[in-house]
Amino acid sequence: MTTLRLILGDQLNAAHTWFRTPRADVLHVMMEVRSETDYVRHHAQKVLAMFAAMRAFATALETAGHRVRYLRIGDTDNRQSFAANLAQVAAECGATRFERMEADEWRVERLLDEAAAALGLPQGVIGSEHFLADRAELAQRFATKVPRMEFFYRDMRRRHRILLDADGGPVGGVWNFDAQNRDKWPGDPPAPDWPWRGHDLSALWDEIVAAGVQTIGTPHAGTLRWPTSRREARAGLARFIEHALPHFGTYQDAMSTRSTTLFHSGLSFALNVKLLHPREVIDAAVAAWQAGKVELANCEGFVRQILGWREFVRGVYWARMPGYATANALDAHRPLPAWYWSGDTKMACLRHAIAQSLDTGYAHHIQRLMVTGNFALLAGCDPDEVDAWYLGIYIDAFEWVEMPNTRGMSQFADGGVIASKPYAGAASYIGKQSDYCKACAYDPKRRHGASGKPACPLNSLYWDFLLRHEARFARNPRMAMPYKAWAKMAPTERAATLSQAARYLERLEAL
Ligand SMILES: Cc1cc2nc3c(=O)[nH]c(=O)nc-3n(C[C@H](O)[C@H](O)[C@H](O)COP(=O)(O)OP(=O)(O)OC[C@H]3O[C@@H](n4cnc5c(N)ncnc54)[C@H](O)[C@@H]3O)c2cc1C
Ligand code: SF4
């Protein structure tokens, strides 16, 4: 009697019930497959980090006495899909039962259901024991109406008793310190170094290349600076808590050419592949506040991201799939400019955010939302293409978290399920939050005009976007200010702005 248990690459949760006691009648199977490397073109560092973390996890399981069958990308007997490999390994070991954890992605759940049906064995599906909210409950709660994140987050604080006072209210008297969390970073305090030292994964990279996997971005295989084990992930968490958390909230919305992460944690990859549990990350932040090392506003700002946003978007994803994947409420169909894949644009903000993403597989939230996402939104790019770009380029990109952030929060393609208004901004926003505009070929102050320093494309595109979608947004109270400002603008100024936008939209590739 052998039970075959499948462990996916983003299920590296050493604390899972499965791994408590080694069992002679259980064979764990892990596999690196082309069906996963090829459904979208991933960043080279994502493939490297995932495979390295999976291999380290398999080795740790074996060391602890578990039985593991591991299929490497280049193995000659690797049949390169979940279904084919499962059938092969089940036959090899004479499996009498198949078990798996819930997959986080809708696509993978379907693939595994099909694979399990083809195996024809009795099967069991168990939770991944990672998230703080129950998936089925969330999907049911969000099926008809999705609450605003803020209310979901308050509920999560209460349910999990996090940052509450003795009466069950929020410590500090308020739930939200966002108003204190919007500073531009002047360069001081210095931003901490990248949390991880490099791994030499050159041999693994050779295997990936030899297998013919196509990737984007720079591999940096000789010095890959992402955590590939729980020990490294824990060390990164400790460094974040000590050096960055004290300023996390204050500079949460800041962007700079002088630092990649600023005071962000860089923990999303470790969290999403489950090397870290969200509760331990939250507890570490709260403990730092309790010890007086971090102000409440900075601690709460960080907790909100994990207890609030991360759990919330997962709920939206599972409540709204599969329809969510094709939502296009703003009817956007323009192709994403080719320079999204090279960084070759004269717009300094986009050039920097894209070049950094290609180089590291990372950009922090405001770079994703207000630079790359904002441009695609203003230009009316097709959310399918925007989704594919985000799903490929970031080391932490898994559909359950990428898609609601991209289609929902950033592109408003879900018609307002996640965001109560579109995250659209012009050069004034970028200039306020970053040092990008200083080195730009465009003039952030101008709405139109090509003589001298040409007008920043974001300015005219911003107004064009608002006008294109006036019927949808003009009555939204959160959008009242810009529509009033537009109404007050001189007719000649309005006409010049819109014709500038039309000229830019005609030649997006050349911007
Ligand atoms: C267009 C777009 C696409 C995104 N795609 C992804 C993605 O594919 N994978 C991903 O993990 N995050 C995604 N995010 C959310 C967020 O940008 C990243 O989680 C964050 O930048 C990761 O960097 P960090 O670990 O330094 O985060 P920090 O700023 O240090 O935040 C701490 C943690 O909170 C969580 N978190 C923060 N914001 C969000 C959010 N909006 N949704 C869910 N979790 C959040 C992450 O786990 C993160 O590690 C996306 C955001 C946008 C706007
Ligand atoms: S001027 Fe415009 S394009 Fe240039 S960096 Fe500023 S916002 Fe970006």
UniProtKB/TrEMBL annotation:
InterPro entries, alphabetized: Crypto/Photolyase_FAD-like_sf (IPR036134), PhrB-like (IPR007357), Rossmann-like_a/b/a_fold (IPR014729), UV-DNA_repair_photolyase (IPR052551)
Molecular-function GO terms, alphabetical: lyase activity
Name the record gives this protein: Cryptochrome/photolyase family protein
Alphabetical UniProt keywords: Lyase
